[in-house]
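It would be a great kindness if you could assist me with a short task in structural biology. The matter concerns a single protein, recorded as an amino acid sequence and a row of backbone structure tokens. Could you please explain, in whatever detail you think fit, how the structure tokens follow from the sequence? Thank you for your consideration; the sequence and its tokens are set out here:
___
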Amino acid sequence: MNSKLDRRQFLKLAGIGGVVFASGMGGFAEAAKTGTVGKDFFFVQLSDTHWGFKDEKVNPDWQGTLKKAVAAVNDLESPPAFIVFTGDLSHTTDDPKERRNRLSGFRDIAAGLKAGNIRYMPGEHDASLDNGEAFKEFFGPTRYTFDHEGVHFIALDNVSDPTSSIGDAQLAWLADDLRKLDPETMITVLTHRPLFDLYPQWDWATRDGAKAIELLTPFRNVTVFYGHIHQEHHRMTGNIPHHAARGLMYPLPEPGSVPKKAPIPWDPAHPYKGLGFREPKAIAGKSIYSLQEYPIR
């Protein structure tokens, strides 16, 4: 069962009301005792860069915002252990050649990031028109796992299938991967679309996301990070916290707040308002993240 939790409620529950707050609330106290993080580390989540988008009324700096984000990440006090892009690297186009041009342009800019490793994931703008073929040419598999300091990361592809589904084959792959893990393992899932029904009317859902959540629920220390909705958002499904990140091209309205989903126009009085990136930090001996949100300026 979903447990709705907007940002204000989340901050109230966290009790600190700032930009830093805790993730992994399910079984919070017990999880802290059984954490498997071997060493402090943090990573950076960047999302929804939409390289190739052009609309002066929405973002007159559409060619510069991603570069500003790259510079901001490079200016962090210490470099992240790795960086993840949670999808929509490029803006959609029906032209396969232009799609590759946009992915190539994005890749060239992202190459300026100072990090030991960069993990890429597709969004529906990158992958839904060709089942992820162009994305794979530039960035490799659309689903994968990796481990870092005792944390098991799982990147799920819920965009290459144009029906907004994970698909039975990938669910079987997920089940097989999870079967090898101890129930106490700290698991971090990366997706583009939300796995739960946030607002299906705006395509803010994954058709078979509940099946993935069902597979993950037996594990006590699971956190999901996703993009797609271009705004910070937090939701619990059972014992699993889900955190959406802001985008890097344009913000979108709160779910269901307007009749039709559309980018929020640029505010000259507050340039880059609603755009930003996230720094999740893991602490040795614990199984929770603290989240730091950074605006674009």
Residues 66 and 248 are 6 Å apart (CA to CA).
